[in-house]
């Protein structure tokens, strides 16, 4: 079986040790980092999501898959980060209040760091107050919010509203991302952009801070 497929299958069965081992093999075989991530880890996690939705597997299985995902991501992280690039802007990122999903948000943070941005990661379950207080204190250029649940998406609107109340709207740029999000929703809540994935987040943030 090819190595990428083995990676996806071991992630689906939540075998963190095996995922780490195969990721290391893939790295040593000099496979493309983005291919290992997209076709191996992310593809495996997408299948986990589909099976969870159909009640074929349950929450503990998803947790194990998430642990396995991190075992692979930890090894890929140094490759995704480029060294020695000067800071080109400051980005604040977090998963919104009520949302504990952080795998995608962490990937986006890694990609932004790799592109040379200074990234302040507030983690998950971040309140609007915490987003805005930190944005003000750290004088960030961009506020990035992640949500994976349709029930937590409205928290993004609350962050934008609080920014308006505090006079920060228009001075900071807002990006949103996560599986249930869309450009339409970003527009509706007054965010500057929706980003589909880490690559588009890097391109969008560069555009928003005026790099191209
Ligand atoms: Co949950 N979960 N989960 N889960 N989980 C989903 C999101 C779900 C779609 C599964 C399903 O039903 N098919 C569903 C949401 C349904 C909905 O709202 N419509 C769901 C549910 C229901 C739940 C619970 C409510 C389950 C329960 O308790 N009954 C619960 C909620 C907990 C909470 O948050 N309060 C829950 C819990 C969990 C775990 C804790 C077990 C675990 C999370 C572990 C963790 O993150 N540390 C988990 C997981 C792993 C998933 C799935 C299977 C995978 C998510 C993931 O990591 N994907 C997910 C199904 C799915 O999405 N296919 C599911 C891989 C990751 C790389 O992709 O996060 O989309 P993603 O990130 C992408 C892009 O979206 C984008 O770039 C990333 C890289 O490409 N992106 C951004 C993300 N954030 C961005 C920010 C940006 C820019 C781009 O700028 C700031």
Question: What is the H-and-E element order?
Answer: HHHHEHEHEHEHEH
Task: Compute the number of strand runs.
Answer: 5
The SS-based structural class is: alpha/beta
Q: Kindly state the percentage of residues in helix.
A: 55-70%
Describe the global form.
Answer: globular
Question: Biggest sheet: strands, sense, closure?
Answer: 5 strands, parallel
Tally of contiguous helical segments: 9
Cofactors and ligands: CO-5-methoxybenzimidazolylcobamide
Unreliable stretches covering 5 or more consecutive residues:
none
What percent strand?
5-15%
Distance between the termini: 43 Å
- Please, what is the oligomeric state? single chain
Strands in their spatial order, largest beta sheet: 2-1-3-4-5
| Rg over alpha carbons | 18 Å
Describe this structure in words.
Helix content is 56%, strand content 11%. The N and C termini lie far apart (43 Å). By secondary structure, it is an alpha/beta fold. Helix 1 (3-12) runs parallel beside helix 3 and helix 4 (59-80) runs parallel beside helix 5. It has a five-stranded parallel β-sheet with strand order 2-1-3-4-5, with helices on both faces. The radius of gyration is 18 Å and the shape is globular. It binds CO-5-methoxybenzimidazolylcobamide. CO-5-methoxybenzimidazolylcobamide is lined by residues 42, 45-46, 48-49, 52-53, 59, 62-63, 66, 93, 98-105, 107-108, 144-146, 148-150, 175, 177-180, 195, 197-198, 201.
């Amino acid at each position: 079986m090819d190595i990428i497929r083995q990676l996806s299958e071991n992630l689906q069965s939540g075998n963190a040790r095996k995922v780490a081992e195969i990721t290391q093999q893939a790295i040593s075989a000099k496979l493309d980092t983005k291919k290992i991530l997209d076709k191996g880890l992310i593809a495996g996690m997408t299948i986990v999501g589909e099976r969870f939705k159909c009640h074929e597997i349950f929450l503990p299985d998803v947790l194990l898959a998430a642990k396995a995902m991190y075992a692979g991501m930890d090894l890929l992280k140094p490759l995704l980060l480029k060294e020695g690039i000067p800071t080109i802007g400051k980005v604040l990122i977090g998963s919104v209040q009520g949302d504990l999903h952080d795998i995608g948000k962490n990937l986006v943070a890694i990609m932004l760091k790799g592109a040379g941005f200074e990234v302040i990661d507030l983690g998950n379950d971040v309140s609007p107050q915490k987003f805005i207080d930190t944005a003000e204190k750290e004088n960030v250029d961009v506020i990035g919010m992640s949500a994976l649940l349709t029930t937590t998406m409205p928290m993004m609107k609350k962050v934008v509203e609080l920014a308006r109340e505090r006079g920060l709207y228009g001075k900071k740029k807002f990006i949103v991302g996560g599986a249930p999000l869309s450009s339409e929703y970003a527009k509706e809540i007054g965010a500057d952009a929706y980003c589909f994935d880490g690559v588009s987040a890097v391109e969008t943030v560069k555009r928003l801070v005026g790099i191209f």
